[in-house]
Amino acid sequence: MNLEQLIDEVYGEHQAKLKAQLEAQKFQEQQEIEQAIAHFRSDFDAVISPNLQKELGINVRATYQHPVYVFAEFVYKDENLKIDRWCGDAWQVKRDDNYLTGGKPNVFMKCLLIELGKIRDSFEPKSIKVSATEMLSKFNSHYVEIEAIAQSEEWRNLCEVHHNDPEMKTHLGDVLHYLGESMGCVEEIKDVSNE
Predict the structure, then answer these.
(1) Are residues 69 and 143 in the same domain?
(2) For residue 146, what are the domain limits?
(3) What is the strand order of the sheet 79-86 is part of?
(4) How far is CA 86 from CA 30, 33, 92, 152, in A?
(5) Residue 160: its H or E element
(6) Are 64 and 116 in the same domain?
(7) 113 and 132 belong to one structural domain
(8) Single residue among 122, 149, 169 that ends a domain in this structure
(9) What is the residue-averaged pLDDT of the chain?
(10) Is there a smaller number of Cβ atoms within 10 Å at the N or the C end of the chain?
(11) Does residue 64 contact residue 72 with C-beta atoms inside 8 Å?
(12) What distances in angstroms separate CA 39 from CA 57, 66, 72, 85, 180, one per listed residue?
């Protein structure tokens, strides 16, 4: 056996051993994560019902560290919120990793709902009027650009040179027609939001 073959054999065994150790470690970590999530969920389901969790869009996640960190996360009125364990059997709500509220299981739900009420009261939805006006402006600029292409000498020449699709000229006219229809719909939204 030559040197290269010896290196391949020994190094291959070494790599296989490292790969097996890594796979075993990943399997162990996954087992720990699944156990931690199951434990968290059994306690969490008693604090916030599964139906309410579903309505809030709560996802239970975990990160592997010692011990495994398990948390629930959800978005309410554009706010990213996280719920995790705090001081044994208590729970806390965080927004951007800043503490908002918390408490023992018997008062936690009330604390959470109060915080959600505060968030709801301070929530300012994006104005449809502003969005409709901006959208109409964008549509209009695109309409003008497409109309300029449709009326250009270059477009007419291109249509005449390539006879593959006899409808080629009308396709661009259709685009303008449907874009105009869309603009009319947005205009109606804008008019309604102005009332």
Answers:
(1) no
(2) 128-194
(3) 59-63, 69-76, 79-86, 90-95, 98-103
(4) 23, 18, 6, 68
(5) helix 153-161
(6) yes
(7) no
(8) 122
(9) 87
(10) C
(11) no
(12) 20, 16, 13, 12, 57
Written as six digits, the tokens of 82 are 């996280």
pLDDT tens digits, one per residue of 182-191 = 888 888 876 6
> What is the reported pLDDT for 66?
75
Number of domains in the chain: 2
User: Burial code of 44-80, b = ≥16 C-beta within 10 A, e = fewer?
Assistant: beebbeeeebeebebebebeeeeebebbbeeebeebe
Tokens of 48: 């916030």
Q: Are residues 117 and 142 in the same domain?
A: no
Quick check: pTM over 0.90? no
Rounded CA-CA distance 119/130 in Å is 23
